[in-house]
Amino acid sequence: MEAVDGNAIGGLLHEVFGIEMTDAASVCGSCGAARQVAELAVYLRAPGTVVRCRSCESVLMVFVQIHDRTCVDLLGLATLG
Amino acid sequence: MAGTALRRRLTWQVAKVSAVTVETASVRTLTLDVPDWPGHQAGQHLDIRLTDEDGYVAERSYSIASAPGEPVAITVERLDDGEVSPYLTDELQTGDDLELRGPIGGYFVWEPENGGPLLLLAGGSGIVPLRSILRHRERTGSTVPVRLLYSSRTLTDVIYRAELDRPASGVEVIHTLTRSQPPGWSGYARRADAALLAEVAWPAAVMPLAYVCGPTSFVEAVSQALVQSGYPPQRVKTERFGATGGT
Amino acid sequence: MSPVSRGFHRRRQDPAENAGRVPPGQYLTKDFPVLSAGPTPHTALDRWTFSIGRAGQQKTWSWAEFRALPTQDVTVDIHCVTKWSKLDTAWQGVSVDTLLEAAGHDGPFAMAHCDGGYTTNVPVADLTGGKAWVAYAYDGKPLAAEHGGPARLLVPHLYFWKSAKWVRSLELRDTNDPGFWENYGYHIYGDPWREQRYAGD
Fold first, then answer.
1. Of B13, B23, C36, C156, which alpha carbon lies 20 to 30 A from B39's?
2. In terms of DSSP H, where are the helices of C39-142?
3. Is the ipTM of this complex over 0.90?
4. Which CATH number fits domain B13-104: 2.30.30.90, 2.40.30.10, 2.30.30.140, 3.20.20.70?
């Protein structure tokens, strides 16, 4: 299962945050790696969308569509934006 | 940074297919008439959404093939086991509706003021956003030098072939055909590896800007090789389509 | 609802005779879709172990020891929360009953721990009585890494996210703590016949 990258969730991120986010800066809460969102590892084919750090593979963001709502968990990030 | 944070809602809207162009046996370009299109940047994409009679919804992303200022167009490769792509390439006709939202993307974009020299690296349908960049460069009169390395399985798989055979001034196109080559082929005939890149890529010393797009394995191999050859990571922009390039 | 896309329909295989075997909201597929929340782990068999029991008191088998245990061939229907169902899937594996008996432990709940960090929780009552296996072969062949090989948990009566890929241990606990997807809003139990996809369903 190959990951794609943050470009693939540009629409989802814009829907959730209200602005373009693929060029936003992110810092991994586990290893401190700093990357633009577009460069994060994204797993689309799952019960939810999982975004991981490309350096340490920690989970940074998870998006789950629960009925008519998108639930967002960003706890793996140290900073975003 | 030009063009970022245009604070508008990204909403779904219904466009009409205004033309279908056959690019290869399995690839079509759909030109779209989008009523509320705000314009786009070269390299951006849009999301499309299909709904069946039972309310089942499928969404996919496709890079915009046209330059800013041209009618919006997407290029779709039919994947045999795909759920969405065969519908887009084989079923959709001129006059049909297509629900979409966009443009999307603020990272994998190029404007003339971003400069160069530009190194564009395409694996299969990864050529689509790079073609938008090439057309934008030509339409704006930019003289930034460009080298495009385009990896395809066979010559008949090359998308936009006629256009790429007549590149604009300052653009050099290098093909590599990885599965089979026509008789008399004198070009590259293997996957883009470090040695091939060493021959084709701008040397790191000229401070190039690279855009790599295609299946994940292609993007990983090429971007790592460029960084190892001295390209600063922030000068190598990547867009991964996944193993099957988005079904 | 969005406008209907003329001529679009999802891939499906819905012969009427299978109607009673397809839970609500599911559609049949002939494929075996690969879903994953992370990179595929690759654990060498000479380093692979499987453990079961309470934390700190687990019984552990090496691959060779594990493969020497009595195995079963089972054919089951599987149901993914992403709405695909696949009928008559053939697996080979060790029954969790066998593993628990060898471990000599008990506990109301189990947390599956997997290579790559994935976890999922299942009541022990749903792992016993011939309802669950640690499976190492699918369709007569060694389980492919992308489908969870060397071995995965197989609990077909629950949504397939509970059939944890790359399973390395079943930790017995007194509390029904949520695993990976349960933490992000999926149902703590996951019965496809009651359509328990999300917490609160």
1. B23
2. 63-67, 96-103
3. yes
4. 2.40.30.10
